[in-house]
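Example 3.2
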Amino acid sequence: MDFNDFEKRKKVIYDFICDSLYVPMKLKEMAIVLQVPKENRDELREVLDALVMDGKVSVSKRGKYSKAKKVLLEGIFTANARGFGFVTIEDMERDIFIGADDIHGAMQDDKVVVQITKPEKKGKRAEGVIVKITERGIKEIIGTFEDNGGFGFVVSDNPKFLRDVFVNKENMGQAKNGQKVVCELVSYGSEKKNPEGKITEVLGNEGDKGVDILSVIRAFGLPEEFQKDVIKAAEKAAVPVSEESTEGRLDLRDEMMVTIDGEDAKDLDDAVSLHKEGDEYVLGVHIADVSHYVKEGSVLDEEAKKRGT
């Protein structure tokens, strides 16, 4: 057997192990069958170690070598804007890298079955190929409609949803070019064919007041209405400051302050003040005493946790 070329040695040994007549053997047994001299057995061990590192061969606790079984794992796919992606497996510390050619139609948040092609080694994450999509993760997208006359496309706001969605004339509804829309996915397409969708809601013209916020709300499935008990708690908290409620708190209501929140801010809770003391200016930077009004564990606190970014 020619052991001059390491890669050739690996191929010879791997073909031997893959033979239908092969039975799992220890290194010594394999060396005898292959007539490897004792002085070359360390080289045989190096070849077997390399095949194990490549994930092609496995070794049992008793030291017997056999062809590695396909390692199939189920996880959630995360796309990257550059074309590749990762699969996160429960109870695995590091995710699995999926090259652009190995995604095979998987999209953001899909539940997939991945086959390990290169095991993790020396701190480098494992690599794999997606062999099956078991459940689609995204049922609708929020994006911008592009009218191409007779048909159109929706370009997703989510940078991890990498493909434009084709919309035929019957499924365009009242959408106009450049508008923000909600698009239900009716087909996920293939590697060569775009997914198809149906526009179910027009959110408004891109850039119009409130449309950007509404797009985010729709994209993340956030609640648009408040429960009655939450509204009631907010109304109860919004009362004039009483004398008793000032105890233990610094009262700066007589200080001239200017808010630093923007004109379109939804909460005016930050402010600055400035006054002169002798030759020096004293700058005050203030934030509202929110914790006085929103108690830990209260209805308002729990609602804020649900809606927090």
